[in-house]
Amino acid sequence: MYRILVTNDDGVHAAGMKAAVRSVDGLGQVMISAPSGQKSGVGRSISVFAPLRYNEIELDGHLAYEVSGTPTDSVILGIFWLMEGEMPDLVLSGINIGENISTDTVTTSGTIGAALEAASYGIPAIAASIQVVDQGDKFDSKNDHRYEFDVAVKIVRRIVRNVLEEGLPKDVDVLNVNVPINATEDTEIVITRLARKIFKTAVHERNDPRGRPYYWIGGELVQTEREGTDVWAVYQEGKISITPLTIDNTARVDLGAISRLVGE
């Protein structure tokens, strides 16, 4: 029987977690290990300076573990403690509330960070996300009931089944799946590459009650990009985007060009 580890960065109690469990229910033995609360934006961070704790809970008929740390912590604890070092056949991270597209989110998303952690052990991984109406909903689980996951569940289930049976293509470690807000079962699926940016980064200064400044990092969304990118697919075309990712960040360049930069 296949073993499937499910995690996320919205927290084990999020609506997207229940949707993720629905997407893999019946496809194998399901293990759920996810943060106890909201951990969006932490990337692949690991709690090396703090101990971890977990609680056993029941989630829609499945035994689940809520972990005090990050999504990556949850994957590590799930594999090397809760599963006693027996590698799962697949890790599903999500279904995240909030699209994870472009190089901006690939390097900051806890959802993708958890998938990359699994991939580092040679485990096929899928990161799945749905687009939000309000970007603030990415960090506020109180509004997750507003979102519909049925289309994402069906797509993820189909991909999971195929990956379990066939594996991922050579040199692909993670499939990053993003479903636009108005997607239906007839919405076209396109294979994309990462856009370069999704945010026009900005820093906002405000003052506390004592008149001292503090700062928020923010920025407007970039909603137009080159054809073939994930931003183009989700924002401009309203299509479902699937982007193959690799954990090998080595630039595909002529290494001789780099040698010239370090020569005398």
Describe the structure.
The chain has 264 residues and is α/β, with parallel strands linked by helices. It is built from seven helices and eleven strands. It has one domain (3-196, 227-262): 3-Layer(aba) Sandwich (Stationary-phase Survival Protein Sure Homolog, Chain: A), CATH 3.40.1210. It has helices at 15-24, 71-82, 102-106, 110-119, 150-166, 230-236, 255-262, and strands spanning 3-7, 29-35, 54-59, 62-67, 90-97, 125-130, 174-179, 189-191, 199-207, 213-221, 240-245. Strands 3-4-2-1-5-6-7-11-8 form a nine-stranded mixed sheet, sandwiched between helices. The protein has a two-stranded antiparallel ribbon with strand order 9-10. Strand 3 and strand 4 form a beta hairpin. Helix 1 crosses helix 5 and helix 2 (71-82) runs parallel beside helix 4 (110-119). The longest helix is centred in the middle third of the chain and has 17 residues, at 150-166. The termini are far apart. The model has no long low-confidence stretch (mean pLDDT 92).
Itemize the secondary structure elements and their pairings.
Elements lengths: L2 E5 L7 H10 L4 E7 L18 E6 L2 E6 L3 H12 L7 E8 L4 H5 L3 H10 L5 E6 L19 H17 L7 E6 L9 E3 L7 E9 L5 E9 L8 H7 L3 E6 L9 H8 L2
Parallel strand pairs: 1-2, 1-5, 2-4, 5-6, 6-7, 8-11
Antiparallel strand pairs: 3-4, 7-11, 9-10
Helix pairs in contact: 1-5, 2-4
